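Take a specimen:
=====
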Amino acid sequence: MNQRLFTLFFGLLSLTFLSWPATAGPASAAESNFSEGIECLQRPDIVCAKVALQKIPPQQIYAKILEAAIAAAENDTDKTFRLLLPIQVSGGADDPALLPQAAASLHASLALAYDHQADPLRSLQQRIQAGHYWQIAGQKNHAQIEQNQRLIWNGLASLDKSQLVEMRGESISTSIQGWVDLALIARDQPDLRQAVADWRKVYPDHGANTDLVLELAANSTPTAAPASNKSAVNKVALLLPFASATFHPAADAIERGFMAARNTAGDETEVVIYPTNGDRESINQIYRQAIDDGASFIVGPLTRDEVTALAVSRTAAGKLEVPTLVLNQSESSFALENLYSLGLSVDTEAAQIARITRDFGLQTAIIIAADNPVASRMAQSFSDAWQAEGGRLLLQIDINEQTAPEDLQSRLQAQPADLLILATEPELARTIRAFLDITTPTYGFSHIYTGVNYEPEDTALLAVRFIDLPWMLGNGDGGFDAYSEAAADLPQGMMQRWFALGADAHQVFSALAARPGTPVTIRGLTGRIEITPDGNIRRTLALGQFTSDGVVLEQAP
């Protein structure tokens, strides 16, 4: 699917520049080199595009837009966001001096990046903007506008009905609502032509080409639902660090969650546990043993070292022997066939905090981080995500038990910010909270919450919001009742989070095994999980808040 998106994307860009009117007058050097770079990409020739980029002064907006298009070609989503979101937030894309074709390129690149993040709403928003700028460009040839609408339609057609309904509810834009309504009636109405005619009466000024929609709908074949959800896998191997004293409790909680989900689903697939040590040295041998024993799907390993060692050893082959759902991130990114990743990543939490707070219009942030490696990782993850969203980081303040709260207060008063981020454990956060301005929005990671709904000490954290698993914030939800007994004797906090990860690992494994290549949305204990057709897994977590009555669920995923 990614390759198809790349092809359509670069086809769009090439159509744009090939159809520039001859009467436009001499272009600036930056505009000409920008055009040259885009034409290189549509061949595709990334080296040629990079040569064209070198001819544009790096401070020029055309350099940033072209560099982002190259990043999109190289599947570097983070770089695409880092380059383009500041331009979009500052209004640079709306500058009348900017070629409308360049503005269209900016939004098309962002749309592709959001495709990779499995964020269909933002992708649709960007493609609508791209179409707007192509209309402004006023080319006689409208092929690029039609191609853009094909991408919009293909994206909507890949979603199930519940996702479309959710998307419609999340936007007040009539352009978005109109597109979603078109996709919904294409699924539900037997007389599509009449239904589209009725739709046009409701949206008389909508930009959708309904003739194209009718053509695309007629040529598409809905994905048939599987006859059952029964997995085609006969044996699944669980690679968990039971052989490590440090990681044994986490392994036990994950196994409990996995088996609870298996029992709830009535899954009869054989499950075999392979104890690992949590280190790099033995994981490949254990992985090979599981395959030799007949495992046709593997869940695990858990630790970062194990995942990295496994991925590195398969880099030359470009794939893992059987579908493998690892439960952590590796130290570097690896594009390996059969490799899927689901874990309790601080990167996921950081990205969601950044999106939520930027959507509220907050622009400047200060991070207050404990002086330890875990907190440093949280701080770096948020810094990257915040700046990728176009926010400005004013300061990072590292603190420990010896830090004088009054000194912290003075530094914050000297440089006020729209947002404070607490990358700390509960105890340290409670100590400093009284010295923070309570009127400044303050957010934390899941690490700030002990997992106990009401603790008297948490009154110090009044009004602090944080990201965590739905299981931790709303396990009274009826949808989670089936898991309550299996998790009842596990301690609060991280053990409950590991249990939730195990339960969702089974749900993701079942979906990948039964419906490979099909987009799936799972309402999981760790969040709303979206599996894209190319196997990327994205999670949206819940938002909680400390109140005088304890922790409350403020926003479900």
In short: The first strand starts at residue 235 and ends at 240. Residues 2-143 form one domain. The first helix runs from residue 2 to 18.
